[in-house]
Every structure is written in structure tokens, then in C-alpha cells.
Write a structure and sequence with these properties.
Length: 375
């Protein structure tokens, strides 16, 4: 049963409005981006924050720059707003203190609610790809499309040519032209781009000579390791997948592909995004026993719990799991318990870490392991 009624808290609509406003500001460019008149959603976020502060007798932010400073420096738990206990953690920020870009928590707030442009965008893209591939009767095309978004958030000129000549992707060729865009010069250092060796996205050069990675979980693991260096004169025009897709498709998809590699190494039969993405991974054991797995790479366990739904029954399976990367659980104490308190009663599949799932798979493959999955 879901813990508490979040709609009873007045801070919930404020947070979703603020998160959406911050993603809008992230996309704004040019010297006039933060000048009056503000985007209506940005003005609404400022007005609602001021009102929430006045209602509680607290000093409100006096301007949009001051509100942005709050988001960058003040944990949301310390804001004078009405939020349920598990809505945020004690150190959660809406903007990264180094780059001033929205954190994963901010994107997840925007993702949670149907009036979020970010949520609509990534789901519309995936939904369009599904429709196009179904129209052509090409399930393999959809699988290849998803794998492309996961493994190639960047395309060099050579990559772009290879993709354009891959006939498996024919049903979604027009769509690809809408979601990959030229990389801004702000990513260049010494006329070259550099990728993160952990998450494959582009690193942003900092003035002190260091690097900034857009993935929160990557930054928590320390300084991002510089990966491929892509000189502009060699790569030609470099294209980058849109940010919402990098956030909600590439990031989680890397956890899915990593899990796929580990399961295949165990000798299991693995199908990725089967039946046009009914769920993420279908696993078949040598005795025919089948697992269905949905991988959820979410920073916030309460959001994950509230989004939980039963795993679709096709393709058929014997057991179903939701899986979260181990480092998500390590980063936030009580992650699994918070998820359980917030999930609907009908979503009764277990939430496991990826390391736990692999351990259960090994146990089941061991002699005598078929009779129990309590490893």
C-alpha cells in the first residue's frame, strides 16, 4: 500500500512546477534567457515559492537568481514548504552546485507528473518509435533503436553515416533526425570533445581544468574519468542525443545492457526489450524457467515505489522482478524499504539490486538450485 497521500501536501505541486521550470531554464540560451518577462512556468515557480514562504512566515527569494541560488545551495528538506517525509532526502538539491544544471532528483520530479514537458517528450519519442516499428512489423528495428540510444548517445560523422545505412533502422530514420542535435561549443577543450569513461556522455570542461559529468551517480563516485578524446577535425560534426533521452533512456539502458552482458556470461538466453518493450529483459534458463526483469535506474526510491506497476504478462514468464543498480541502494540508506512503503499493493514483484539478481541466477543454475530462489 502506498504510504501517505502526497496530494495532501501543498509543496508537491510547487516542487513539480519548480522542477519543470528548472528544466526549461536549462534549455534557455543567450544573454536574455533569465530576463523579464520569464517563461510562464518559470514565473509560476517563482510566484508559488514566494507564496509558500509567506504562508509559513519565512523570508522568500527576492528574485529568480536568488531562487536559482536556493536550488543550487539549499537542500530541499530545509525549504519552508510542506512536503511529505519521504519526498526528499536530507542532502537533496535541485541544481548541481558546480554546473547549476538540474540534478537527477529534479528531472525525476519533472518526470513524475503528466504536466511535465520533459516527461511527455521522452515518452512521446519512445511511443512514436514503437508505433513506427509495429506498423512495419519489425520488432528487431525497435530493439536496435533502443540499443542505439543506450550505447551511442554521441554520433560522430562516421557514426551518423553508419546509422544512415543500417536498414534495420529504416522505420525510425526520420525520428533519429529529430532527437540527435549538434553539440554546443561549450563542450570543447583545445578543439576536442571528451567523453566520460564511466557513462559515455560528454564531459563539460571546467575553468580549473577539471571535468563535470551530467550524471549525478557518476559524480558521486569521484572525479569523472576522461574517456575518448574526439578532436573536432577528426570527428566532423558531433551529434548528441537530447537530454531527456540521455536521462531516462541512455542512463537506465546502460544498467540494462550491463545486466544483459552478465546474464549472457552465465550461459542464459536473453532477449532485450521483448515484444516491443513489454519489459526490459526476458531470461530463459536451461530448464525453460523464465524471468521477466524491468530495470529502474532511479535516484529516488519513493518516486520509484509510487510508479511501480505489475509487469506485463507477455512474453510469458514464471517470475518477475524490478531491478535497481546496486550503487543506487548504496547511495541512499533504506532504499528498498522506502520503495516498499510507497509501491501500490498490486505491484507485488520484488525489487532487487542487480548484484542480487545475478546471485539468484547463479544459485538457480547451481545443482539443486532450481527448487528455491531464496539465495
Amino acid at each position: 500500500m502506498i504510504a501517505g497521500d502526497w496530494s495532501a501536501h501543498r509543496g508537491i505541486p510547487l516542487m513539480r512546477t519548480l522542477a519543470t521550470a528548472l528544466t526549461i531554464l536549462e534549455e534557455a540560451t543567450g544573454p536574455d534567457a533569465h530576463l523579464l518577462p520569464y517563461h510562464p512556468e518559470v514565473q509560476r515557480a517563482l510566484d508559488r515559492t514566494v507564496l509558500a514562504c509567506l504562508e509559513r512566515g519565512a523570508e522568500p527569494p527576492g528574485s529568480l537568481p536568488e531562487l536559482v541560488e536556493w536550488c543550487r545551495e539549499r537542500p530541499v528538506a530545509d525549504w519552508p514548504v510542506d512536503l511529505p517525509d519521504e519526498a526528499v532526502g536530507p542532502d537533496d538539491l535541485l541544481l548541481d552546485p558546480v554546473s547549476s544544471r538540474p540534478t537527477e532528483l529534479c528531472h525525476e520530479w519533472a518526470e513524475q507528473f503528466p504536466d511535465s514537458a520533459t516527461r511527455l517528450y521522452d515518452r512521446e519519442i519512445i511511443g512514436t518509435a514503437l508505433r513506427l516499428c509495429r506498423q512495419h512489423g519489425e520488432e528487431d528495428s525497435y530493439t536496435e533503436f533502443r540499443r542505439l540510444l543506450v550505447t551511442r548517445p554521441l554520433l560522430t560523422a562516421a557514426d551518423e553515416w553508419a546509422v544512415s545505412t543500417d536498414h534495420v533502422l529504416d522505420p525510425v530514420k526520420d525520428l533519429l533526425g529529430l532527437i540527435y542535435h549538434p553539440v554546443p561549443d561549450s563542450y570543447l577543450r583545445n578543439d576536442a570533445y571528451t567523453t566520460c569513461d564511466r557513462c559515455r556522455t560528454l564531459l563539460t570542461p571546467l575553468q580549473d581544468g577539471g571535468w563535470w559529468c551530467e550524471r549525478d551517480r557518476c559524480r558521486r563516485r569521484g572525479q569523472p574519468p576522461a574517456g575518448r578524446r574526439l578532436p573536432l577535425e577528426e570527428t566532423g560534426r558531433l551529434l548528441q542525443l537530447d537530454r531527456p533521452l540521455r536521462q531516462f533512456v541512455t542512463g537506465p539502458g546502460q544498467a540494462e545492457v550491463s545486466l544483459e552482458e552478465q546474464l549472457v556470461a552465465l550461459g542464459l538466453t536473453v532477449r532485450m526489450w521483448p515484444a516491443y518493450d513489454a519489459y526490459d529483459i526476458h531470461i530463459t534458463f536451461p530448464d525453460g524457467h523464465a524471468w521477466a526483469v524491468d530495470v529502474k535506474d532511479w535516484a529516488h526510491p519513493a518516486f520509484l515505489g509510487r510508479s511501480a506497476r505489475p509487469v506485463r504478462r507477455e512474453p510469458p514468464y514464471d517470475e518477475a522482478f524490478w531491478v535497481v543498480p546496486q550503487d543506487r541502494v548504496d547511495d541512499r540508506p533504506g532504499y528498498i524499504a522506502t520503495y516498499e512503503r510507497n509501491r501500490p499493493a498490486d505491484a507485488d514483484h520484488p525489487l532487487l539490486t542487480d548484484t542480487r539478481l545475478i546471485a539468484r541466477a547463479r544459485h538457480r543454475l547451481a545443482p539443486g538450485g532450481k527448487k528455491t530462489d531464496d539465495a
